[in-house]
Amino acid sequence: MRPFSRPIHVTRPLLPDLSSYAARLEAVWKSGWLSNAGRQHDELERRLAEHLRLERLSLLCNGTMALIVAARALELRGEIITTPFTFAATPQSLSWSGCEPVFADIDPDTMTLSPEAVEAAVTPRTGGILAVHVFGCPCDFRGLDAVARRYGLPIVYDGAHAFGLEVDGDPVGVHGDVTMFSFHATKLFHTAEGGALTASSVAVQRRIERLRNFCIEGEERVSGIGTNGKMNELQAALGIEVLAMMERERARRLEIAAAYRRLLEDIPGLRLPRAPAGVTRPSLQYFAVRVSEKGFGMSRDELYDALKAYNIFTRKYFHPLCSTFAGYRDMPSSSSANLPVANAVARECLTLPFYGELRVEYAERIAHIIRELAGSRCP
Ligand code: T4K
User: Fold this and answer.
1) Which atom of ligand 1 is nearest to the CA of 318?
2) Of 307, 331, 310, residue with least CA distance to 321
3) CA 33 to centroid of chain Cα atoms
4) What is the pTM (predicted TM-score) of this model?
5) What DSSP character marks residue 112?
6) Under-70 pLDDT residues of the chain
7) How many angstroms separate the CA atoms of 34 and 262, rounded?
8) What is d(CA 68, CA 95) in angstroms, rounded to the nearest whole number?
9) Are 142 and 155 spatial neighbours (Cβ–Cβ below 8 Å)?
10) Cα angle for residues 240, 243, 249 (degrees, 5° grid)
11) For a pocket test of ligand 1, which of 8, 106, 186 has the largest count of ligand atoms closer than 8 A to its C-beta?
């Protein structure tokens, strides 16, 4: 197989027609209102709540700030049990909120926090759980809820990869106390930078909405210590245009996933993503495969490097584990003995190019290249 003539990245942002975005910007210009809960903001908030079938959804400037605001809104304190197999934002948002992340191991199949490992990590200082629907795979809600109930702990779900995910017919955002969505440019739905929180109660939603605007409650009243977590009008206007493209984008991604599956599923040592039972609508955020060196004949790192030579830029999400980062690596919970599954999974995962604009023929070519590389090492 020939290398691609242009680099193929792991993702590309979904871009609406520039003229339709410009038309929306014209309305913003005319209004002279650029931030602080403007018309575009309120419209996007309403449309997203409708699209995701969620009663309470609040926009924020990005997913990381949304997690920080969630921690404040729930008054999280002390040790928060979380996964090391995630993006830096997950534990870092806890540290910025004055909490101490404590890492617990993940489930070998779903790659999400293991409820048993969470329970084993509970101490008198535990103040909550921050679980991640990694690669759009839903956490074990029942298992985590049971642990949370037993110890009276709040649960925050990091749903950065879980836009549109539904389990047993319910949107993922109905679980836990708060769920965060990221609308970064690399996400299925995006506002260039942005995020949202869904809340389990009106009281929590009110706190979120106060905190995201400095706790300002009137020209002469500030009711607490908040922050600037607001989404501006340019972001929101982009979001409205991107949201209108969502169904087409999902259909394109389904075709690409089907092509990958068709051509990769029988390669020994290559494990394809599988939605766990109960998923009634997948998130379609990433296509992450797992490479087992023994069966595949090549390690994940070797495959990553080999694909680069074909101008294919996959990503090793989420390697290295957050538990190895400066600031976290010396914590007792970061030891590899505490995180055997996460360490093994982080060595195996490779995220393939996956975005609507990727032509199906290109996905097929990528799959053929992977097949060839696998064959090249067979005895
Ligand atoms: N929790 C989880 C589990 C998360 O995954 C994230 C973010 C968060 C929380 C925090 O949410 P935010 O605060 O970001 O809203 C990217 C994203 O920046 C990040 O949002 C995302 N997770 C993470 C998994 O991926 P990088 O460092 O891998 O991005 P970068 O710049 O290397 O981009 C990846 C590829 O995307 C590039 O190879 C090319 C393409 N790209 C990227 C950008 C920004 C484009 O084609 N156009 C673009 O504008 O973090």
Assistant:
1) 24
2) 331
3) 30
4) 0.97
5) S
6) 377-379
7) 47
8) 9
9) no
10) 150
11) 186
